[in-house]
Amino acid sequence: MRRTTKWGLALGVGMPALGLALGSVQLRLQSARLRTAVEQDGRRPVPQPALRVDRSTGRGIPLVESRADEDLPAVAVLGDSWVAGLDVGSRRRTQGMLIARGVARLVGEDVRLRVVAAPSAGADDLLGQVSAVLTDRRMRRSRTGGGEPRYAVVSMGTADLVHPISGTIGLPVLSTVINRLQREGGYRVIVLTVPNLGLLPSIGRPLRDVLRRSSRVLSGSQWLTAVSTGALPVSLNQTLTGTTRIGLVSTGGRYPSVLGCAQLAAAIVHRIAEDLAAPVSIASGTEPTAHPAAEHDAPPPSASAGPAADPEELSA
């Protein structure tokens, strides 16, 4: 009887401990594979164009330093794999070109475009990208006091979740990036909050659960940081949601597909149009729908819960 009791106690204590040990090993292996894939993405070359995008044709010509061009609108794209233009096949399909073409149509002028985004860029890399944009004389602010639109699109956070750093996961860096772009460059900053990495394909449990929780916390914190510093937050979760969600991201789930790039650029241009109060054409037979900017600027209920309007997270 005593021997049976001892075996029962041993199994009762040992099995959960064994399960935890196996789960820990699996989590380490999954994390190592994901880090390796992200590091490989970071070594891939991507175009970082500096172009003047024609408002009529949408074509880009090399951007040169010119006093006359200083009065043109400007778009700068900074960040990580979500805006770097990986695997799109053509420069015209990159997020930067699509955004610049959209802005050119909105304002009816040629647009200066500078892309410095790089795959798998982390928080520290963003500081170098900001310096590159601010020191580029071709993107200089107008010296005549013109009020041309100037927008900077910033995406960061994925690499910091994959390679965790201590403290607040790059939030002080995000605040610094926003402030420098606003004060030194005169840019209106658009912040793409980190997506829910736990919902991306090719990521299984237990890593999926860990990334899901950390992504939601970071996304909500980025949203609040953007609003508090006067930037415009845009949720990547909302942008990459739909019946074709799997088709909106790459097979590995670490950056958008060609379709995802187009949808992401459309969401950013739509946000810029709202900020500029630009008229939006309505198809015949449909009723216009109000899209007040306050809806986009409203922060989520709490930083720990992430952006409030992420239906795929609520259903997860």
Notes on the protein architecture:
The protein has 316 residues and is an alpha/beta fold. The chain has a single domain, classed as 3-Layer(aba) Sandwich (Rossmann fold). Helices cover 44% and strands 11% of the residues. It has a seven-stranded mixed beta sheet, with helices on both faces. Mean pLDDT is 82; it is low at 282-316.
Number of helices: 10
Instruction: Indicate the overall shape.
Output: elongated
Estimate what percentage of residues fall within beta strands.
5-15%
How are helices and strands ordered from N to C? Answer: HEEEHEHEHHEHEHHHH
Largest sheet: 7 strands, mixed
Q: Percent of residues in helical segments?
A: 40-55%
Mean pLDDT: 82
CATH architecture: 3-Layer(aba) Sandwich
Whole-number tally of structural domains: 1
Structural class: alpha/beta
**CATH secondary-structure class:** Alpha Beta
Indicate the CATH topology.
Rossmann fold
What name goes with the CATH superfamily? SGNH hydrolase
Q: What distance separates the N and C termini?
A: 47 Å
Low-pLDDT parts are 282-316
Widest sheet, order of strands: 2-1-4-3-5-6-7
How many E-type strands? 7
Rg value: 22 Å
